[in-house]
Amino acid sequence: REALQLLQAEGLVVSAPHVGATVAPISEDEVHEVFAIMEGLETVAVRAAAARMDADEEARLRALIGEMDEAVASAAYERWADGNGRLHRMIGEIARMPLLREMTDRVLSRWERLRRHYFQGVLVPRVPQAQREHHLLMDALARRDPDGAEQVVRAHNRAALASYAEFLRRATEATATPDSPLTH
Fold first, then answer.
1. Which residues contact 170 (CB under 8 A, 6 or more apart)?
2. Of the candidate ranges 20-24, 123-127, 141-145, 157-161, the one whose mean pLDDT is the lowest
């Protein structure tokens, strides 16, 4: 009961009379909220990381991006997605801001829920572009360029949001069409 109350408080479960607890639906508003908050948090994180990153942290970040490149090359998208979460969390660690890291973890957990829900429709087609954006971000961080890193991370989040929003739009249109493959 306590676990269900916690899940309900986090917006992951809804309770309905005579039905019980069910997984909360994902709304377009939730998608916008997740990416708006991620953009804000990551803007702060990359600016701080650009100023604070040491050589060891840079090497670890590059190694992780290399692992993600291998996952893309072998179409191991779940492995890539795991690396993506680790990458964004690692940047938060490099920023050395514990509260920011805690908040980023919470929003990334919500992103994971979105990703699992829309995996094939959004993530897979976007992976190569997202990975190119990770390289651009790494380049800006390596140059210790907070403005460049911020510009990349804003574009990264906005492009992801646009992909999810477009998928939602197409899914909504498809459910209105009786012969759509998404309705079967």
1. 121
2. 20-24
